[in-house]
UniProtKB/TrEMBL annotation:
Residues 29-230 form the Aminoglycoside phosphotransferase domain. The lineage of its organism: Bacteria, Bacillati, Bacillota, Bacilli, Bacillales. Pfam families: APH. PANTHER family: AMINOGLYCOSIDE PHOSPHOTRANSFERASE-RELATED-RELATED, BIFUNCTIONAL AAC_APH. This is Phosphotransferase. InterPro entries: AGP_Transferase, Aminoglycoside_PTrfase, Kinase-like_dom_sf.
Length: 300
């Protein structure tokens, strides 16, 4: 039985959520950060698997009540919150309305559906950006200094990844860091709140209207370069989709933004390789290297 399979998680729920009797359990998703279970076909429970994920849940518990009043789409409202036996956090909230998108769902949309979805996506991003930075900081939302972060990443990459690359890939990566870190306008932005993990599978939509009905997984919420929000959108939905979104957002210098976001995607692949090295996961390393080589070949 599924309930027996996830008995440790069920025990945490039953011991700390006294008004909830667990009758059915199904896995909604699992990554190296969290396990997510559907309870009684009504609740989503997220269980942190490491300290970083636990800290992210703590951050969400603080900020989501305030954020929910500023966002048109539904966001998780934690009714249940507790600690697992290892001290890591877990949280439970009612399932949000709508259907979760898959990473490649957008490619099946027709032109009208695509346009409608982009309009609602732009509305969510604008609403989140409008949330007061001071209030976000007061609730523990961190500010990201991307320039410093990517300067450190470059050092790690040269030390740990360059030995795995041929000279062409090394030159390509060096030029990416050089062009990003020394671009005169990339550091000129007004920091704003961003979701930080805006992949398609964190969005729920009404399949009839293509309106965004819910947004989940705010664990990477940060105060950062607003353009950093677009990196998964570019990677999953493509350049033309992001161009349309940027246009509807009223962004200026769209070509510059597209180039910057492409750097963010490349740097994400490098972080993926580094994580593969740390975990001794050769498939992650190989996958990341292939993605970067594919990018380099497209630039030629």
């Amino acid at each position: 039985m599924e309930k027996d399979k996830y008995s440790a998680y069920v025990t945490s729920i039953e011991e700390q959520c006294k008004d909830l009797t667990v009758e059915t359990v199904h896995k909604l998703g699992e990554g190296w950060m969290s396990m997510v279970l559907k309870i009684n076909e009504e609740w989503a429970f997220r269980f942190a698997k490491n300290q970083r994920a636990s800290d992210d849940l703590d951050k969400e518990a603080r900020i989501l009540p305030s954020l929910s009043s500023c966002i048109s789409a539904a966001v998780p409202r934690f009714k249940y919150y507790g600690r697992q036996k290892d001290g890591l956090a877990f949280a439970g909230y009612r399932l949000l309305p709508g259907e979760i998108l898959m990473e490649n769902s957008i490619h099946s949309f027709n032109e009208k559906e695509r346009k409608e979805f982009i309009i609602h996506l732009s509305e969510f991003i604008k609403e989140l950006r409008a949330f007061p930075v001071k209030q976000a900081k007061a609730n523990g939302v961190p500010e990201q200094d991307l320039h410093s972060f990517y300067s450190r990443l470059q050092q790690e990459v040269e030390k740990d990844i360059f030995p795995l690359m041929n000279s062409s890939l090394q030159k390509y990566i060096s030029s990416c860091f050089q062009d990003y870190l020394h671009h005169p306008r990339y550091a000129e932005y007004t920091p704003s709140p961003i979701h930080g993990d805006l992949s398609m599978d964190h969005l729920l939509i009404d399949p009839e209207t293509f309106r965004i009905t819910g947004v989940i997984d705010f664990g990477d919420l940060a105060i950062s370069d607003p353009d950093f929000e677009y990196r998964y959108i570019l990677e999953e939905c493509g350049k033309s989709f992001l161009q349309s979104l940027l246009s509807i957002m009223g962004e200026q210098n769209i070509d510059d933004i597209l180039k910057k976001v492409a750097f963010f995607v490349t740097f994400d692949h490098l972080q993926y390789i580094l994580e593969g090295i740390r975990r001794k996961n050769n498939s992650w390393i190989q996958e990341g290297l292939e993605e970067i080589e594919c990018e380099m070949n497209k630039e030629k």
